[in-house]
Amino acid sequence: MVSFRVKVAAAPLRIQVTERLRSAITECHFKAEDRLIERELCKLLGVSRGSVRESLRQLEAEGLVRLMPNVGPVVATVTVEDARQIYEIRMVLEGLACARFAEHATDDQIARLAKSVTKMEKAHSQRKASAMFRAKTRFYDVLAIGCGNQLLAKQVVQLRARVSQFREMIFTREDRIFESLQEVLPIMKAIKDRNPEAAREAGSARIKKASEVALAMGVFEENRSAENTSEAA
């Protein structure tokens, strides 16, 4: 059984709670339209209602949670138009992150990135989707940290989170697992060559392909009904 309880650590409690809830949503422990009931979250996380409320407000700002009239906070859905806009921005930002990584990453960070690709290759050869998800997440975590721009890294992580809850549906296509790995390899080569422009092009191309596949598979909502739209603050 997955444990979400927050442990005593150096990071502020608010950050820990927000990270736990964000992971619970992006890893599909909470699915689109699930209600996020404060008292249940307090018990699950072992924290106060104030901490939960603060974190829910942060996740609402990130687009992962929305407030429904007479219902309260729920896990946000993503419409087709939402997805188009998210992928359009990701193509630019992740291309930039790859270029900056190629320029600024340390040799150790490049080695860690290469290690995550090796794990992806192993997961692919064994047809283990869950291991592929973990290795790919690690790849982008290392990429974000090593790009040398904290604001860029934050935006990349948040935008990925918006669509990450749909990864499992997208990866049900076995050929997509193979394609995904093949799209990462040119990024890794460009980074090893310390070629920022090639890294940018490969990073943007990967997101463009991911967008085409996801939109073609119809995993996103066509529309969001008016009654389910958050009220303006």
Summarize the structure.
This protein has 233 residues and is mainly alpha-helical. 68% of the residues lie in helices and 3% in strands. The longest helix is centred in the middle third of the chain and has 25 residues, at 80-104.
Keywords:
233 residues; mainly alpha; Arc Repressor Mutant, subunit A; Four Helix Bundle (Hemerythrin (Met), subunit A); 2 domains; 10 helices; disordered C terminus
Question: What this model shows, in words?
Answer:
It contains 10 helices and 2 strands, in the order H-H-H-E-E-H-H-H-H-H-H-H. The chain is mainly α. It folds into 2 domains: 13-77, Arc Repressor Mutant, subunit A (Orthogonal Bundle), CATH 1.10.10; 80-217, GntR ligand-binding domain-like (Four Helix Bundle (Hemerythrin (Met), subunit A), Up-down Bundle). Strands 1-2 form a two-stranded antiparallel ribbon. The radius of gyration is 18 Å and the shape is globular. The protein starts with 12 loop residues before the first helix and ends in a 16-residue tail after the last helix.
